[in-house]
Structure formats: C-alpha cells, structure tokens
Amino acid sequence: MPDLLVVVLLAAGSALAIALLGVLALRLLSRRSLVLSTTVVALVGVVGVLAAALVAAKSMFLSQHDLGVLVVVCLVAGGVGVLTAVVLARAVVAGSHALGLAAASLGDGSYTSAGSLPAELAALDRQLAEASARLEASRDRERALEGSRRELVAWISHDLRTPLAGIRAMAEALEDGIVDDPATVDRYHASVRREADRLASMVDDLFELSRINAATLSLTLEQVSLGDLVSDAIASASPVAAAKGVRLESADLEGLPPVEGSVRELGRVLRNLLSNAIRHTPADGVVSVQAGSQDGQAYLVVADACGGIPAEDLPRVFDIAFRGTAARTPADDGGAGLGLAIARGLVEAHRGDITIENDGPGCRVLVRIPAGDGIA
C-alpha cells in the first residue's frame, strides 16, 4: 500500500507540473486564436497523462517492451484527442465568425441565422435575432416619429402663417387709416383678437404635447366625479355646437362613478374629443356622450356623425398632426391636428387607453381609465 501511495503521488506531481506549465502557456496565449488555446489544453492533457504514466511505469519497474507499448498507446490516444480538439475549436471559431458577420446586419431587417451551431452559440444566435427584431422595430418607430415631426412642422407652419398674415393685414389697414368706419374697425379688432386666441391655443397645444412626449407631465391625482366632468365639458362645448347647428346629447349623468385622475387633464381630454366631434359633424347632426363603469374601469364614449373614417386612416387618427382625408379633410378652422394626439397622451398618462371605430353615421371614441374608490 505505501508503494502504491508513492506511485500515485509521483504521478500526480508530474501531471500537476505539466498542468501548471499549460496554465502559463494559456496566459501567454490569452489573446491568440481559440484553436491554438484549445490545442494547448489538449496537449496538456495528453502530456500530463504521458508523464504520469512514465513516472508510474518507472516506479513499478516495467520492462522496456511494456513501457514502449504504454508510450505508443498514450501518444496515439493523445494524438486523436488533440486532433478532435482542433476540429472542435475550428468549428466553434467558424460559428463565432458567422455570428460576427450576422451581427453586422443587426437592426436592418436582413439578419439571418448563422446555421448549425453548438448549443451556447445557438442561444446567442437566437438572442441576436431577437435583438435585431427589436432594433428594427425601434428604427421603424423612430422613422414614424420623424415623419410625424416633419408633418407637424409643415402643418404648424401653415396654420401659424394664416392667422399671422390676417393679423398683419388688418393691423396695417388700421395703422394706415384705410379702414376708418367704426363698425369695420370694431370688426377688425374682434378678428385680431380671435386670431390671437387661435394662435395662443396652438401654442398651448404644442406645449402640452411637448410635455407629454418628454414624459415631464406631472399629474395631481384625486377622486374626480365623472358626472361633473362630463357636464362641465358639455357646457363648455355647447356654444360652439349651437353656432354650428349640432345637437349635444348625453345619457343620464346621475350615479356615475368617480375616477382617479387630474380634473384639468381629464377635462381637456373630453373637451378635445367634443371639439373634434363637433368640427366634423354637419349641421343638424348629433354628438352624444355616454359614461359609466365596467370591470373596474370607468369609460367615456363620444359618438359623432362625421360620416366615418377611411379604414386606412383609422390606425393613424391619434398620430401627431394627422388630419385624415375624405370625410375628415379639415376646413379652415380645422385646428393644428393635435387634439386627438394630446387626448391619447393624457389618457395614457392616467394608465388608460383610447380607441376609435366607425359606428353608425360617424365615429365612436372610447376612453377607459381606472375607476376610483367608489367602484367595486
């Protein structure tokens, strides 16, 4: 038994010495090819086994013939092992190169799988494919946003130029004394004030939209009476509707649930929806408002008689500066096309959602937001 222990210790010592040399070689080759490093690892195993076998053979006094056979067997087995390690390393390197080439196309929609790979590299390949899809989707969103920004600048430039040109023309007429009839002067003053209010409204919309897009909108949440919210919005929109000959209708507002939100922002959502509905509803048309609760959420419905929205326009109705075509081609008082975009941003800030669909003689906008404490 002591002799066996000595043999084991000698064999282990010689193998450990080879292993230490191998670790040193790997450190020196840390920035070299993976194939070379894998070859060194395989050689360390082979040489370590051979050294341990030789030490053990010497200790056990094997014959020259037996020792030669042992050396040949170790060398053949070791050679096969080294060759296998090199082949495997080259396959891994080829796979990594294929992944590198595939990664170069991340986000441009042309990412293709690197093919048959070891499990770890295949998992990385799947992750790269998912990352490429996310990047492409992000770029699509950026392109859409950039398109919306360009469209917004074009619309706002046009809409600002029109009232400014009118104000300037009227101011010059008053200044040069071209207009001196009191009634006409009063009419010009009223027009200047009206156009100035229109410009102020556009600026307010742009400021609100910038706060929404920059995520700097700060809401003061409280329990808000849904009935009061609807009645106040209808009272505010009634003069505009009456001037256009549009009837405003609402369901029974008694017993409506409270909602958790900001009175100012929720009021603006409903006013924007009513203003948009009235603008696109012809005279003698009807705009109706309904409210209630369902499944722990409060809802608001604004329905108009606009004639409907083309199916291809429905997904873009809430986009910035989108005004649509056909039935929704804007008139001169069509606004800057920001009302619905602002409404969506404010609803989403309340952790709610807003949708629109064609329904009957016009459109139906549905707003859902979390209900307050009064809902079971």
Structure keywords:
376 residues, alpha+beta, Helix Hairpins, Heat Shock Protein 90, 3 domains, five-stranded mixed β-sheet, two-stranded antiparallel ribbon, 8 helices, elongated
Give the topology, please.
Layout: H1 2-28, H2 34-59, H3 64-103, H4 119-175, H5 182-213, E1 222-225, H6 226-244, E2 247-250, E3 258-261, H7 263-280, E4 286-294, E5 297-303, H8 339-349, E6 353-359, E7 362-370
Parallel strand pairs: 2-4
Antiparallel strand pairs: 1-3, 4-5, 5-7, 6-7
Helix pairs in contact: 1-2, 2-3, 3-4, 4-5, 5-8, 6-7, 7-8
Give a verbal description of the structure.
With 376 residues, this protein is an alpha+beta fold. The chain has three domains: 2-103; 144-213, Signal transduction histidine kinase, dimerisation/phosphotransfer (DHp) domain (Helix Hairpins, Orthogonal Bundle), CATH 1.10.287.130; 222-370, 2-Layer Sandwich (Heat Shock Protein 90), CATH 3.30.565.10. It is 61% helix and 12% strand. It is built from eight helices and seven strands, in the order H-H-H-H-H-E-H-E-E-H-E-E-H-E-E. The chain has helices spanning 2-28, 34-59, 64-103, 119-175, 182-213, 226-244, 263-280, 339-349, and strands spanning 222-225, 247-250, 258-261, 286-294, 297-303, 353-359, 362-370. The strands form two sheets. The protein has a five-stranded mixed beta sheet with strand order 2-4-5-7-6. Strands 1-3 form a two-stranded antiparallel ribbon. Strand 6 and strand 7 form a beta hairpin. Helix 1 runs antiparallel to helix 2 (34-59) and helix 5 packs parallel to helix 8.
